[in-house]
Amino acid sequence: MYVGNGDGRLYAFRRPSGRLRWTAKTGRSIQSSPAVAGGLVYVGSNDGYLYAFRATTGARVWRVRTGLLTGSSSPTVAGGVVYVGSLVGTQQDGALYAIDAHSGAVRWRADLLTAAAASCPSVVGDTVYIGNTSGNVLAYATSCVTPCKPKWLYELGDGLEVGTPVVADGKIFVSVDGVGGSFVYALPASCGAFVCDPIWKANTVTPFTFATPAVSGGVVYTQGYRFYAFDEDCGSGGAVCKPLWVGFARGSSSPAVANGVVYAGSAGGRLYAYAVNCARGGRTCRPRFRSAPIPRGGSTFAASPAVAGGRVYYGAFTVVRAFGLRRK
To answer: pLDDT digits over 28-45, tens only?
Structure first.
């Protein structure tokens, strides 16, 4: 299990014991999530570099300067290429990088049409999807060359910050945040025109909060003021959808689904577990499990849960916890 920290170090822990295996240092804090592929661990640091470390030893293989990497864009690895969003130039414009996973050479760079950071990229087939802070979801060809231009985009509204797009069942699901509140959108995964229209949207209420949705079994799970479950086919033609059910977890943690259970972190550092089919008709669902909060004085922010090897791993403040998966 690999975890970045505010001290600028990447930590590797053994599963399931939690024993520290190694640490590797970068120049500044790490806010993004690491990506693991082909025996390497890739992580962005706020020192402006993307790093590749040996997964077994923590030895640095390469680093590449991408500009200021903020916590909003974690690397994604697909087809031997690492994709990551960053800020470049004196104006700190948003950019998407495609970097060779083995050598660290930059294959191409794309303008994200925004003067701020970007979401994490998602790669499906020959397309890279990414959100920006100007209210857009953009699609780029993986075969692009610098200067790379988007194939098409969705304009969801000025002044909105767009989260990480999730592609499933021919649709894009994405959370969007602004001063007036937060929403989750369903969009077609392909678009014939340059500017496209959404299928439906739903209100998740809380401003300045957006989580990456999880999609499983025809249901979209996401968070905001509360935890929400939406039918992925709940509407069309830009309809405003109502939730199938709601839960108590709230915040920006992104849910994970495994073994018929959806896991969600919450402000205060609690981990919640809900049955995937726990309710209908917009009712409030009682959790099957709720962990204790983090110690008093700790951060109210929490990482997204990850499921592997029969356990749920969940980080909050300076603590990483492991919980067993059990069915009742």
So the answer is: 999 889 999 999 999 999
